[in-house]
Amino acid sequence: MSDTDELLDAARAARLRAYAPYSKLRVGSAVRSASGQVYLGCNVENAAFPIGGCAEHHAIVAAVMAEGPQLRLTAVAVAALDDDDREVPIPPCGACRQFIYEFGPEAEVSFPVRSGEVLSLPITALLPHTFEFEPGG
After folding, report:
1. For the residues 64-68, what does the mean pLDDT come to?
2. CATH class for the domain made up of 3-126
């Protein structure tokens, strides 16, 4: 089994913990840091929609909590189920793409596509124009 397959399996397990009573779309994410550790996250919805959160965001926050602000990501996997328990392709949203880039400008992002295959792309292919801020610059 490849590293990508293992990370995707972890994302699939994480999606089972999602709290998605409104959209019924359960999303899980697994991120691998440069240290080799894997961190999980799932989407958590809320009746006040803006305060919910994405699986990728939550996985990255867990990684930062564990490894600190020097965290560097090498890989991210995302997996989702609809309300009929069918796997659906869910690439990271725009905000999560920027969040991934912030901690892993060379990270590979993988997610299943409709054909049943897995698409793996560098984050820069998903977010070709990043927002970069240099304090004091």
Report:
1. 98
2. alpha beta
Q: Which two tokens stand for residue 63?
A: 């990684």
How far apart CA 95 and CA 30 sit, in angstroms, is 17
What is the model's pTM? 0.93
Report CA 129 to chain centroid distance, whole Å: 19
End-to-end CA distance of the chain: 45
Q: What are phi and psi of 42, to 5 degrees?
A: -140, 160
Instruction: Domain ranges for the chain, please list them.
Output: 3-126
The residues that are catalytic are 56
Q: Could you tell me which residues come within 8 angstroms of residue 35 by beta carbon, excluding any fewer than 6 positions away?
A: 67
Long-range contacts: 60-66, Cβ < 8 Å, 24+? 60/31, 60/99, 60/100, 60/103, 63/31, 63/33, 63/37, 63/39, 63/103, 64/103, 66/37, 66/39
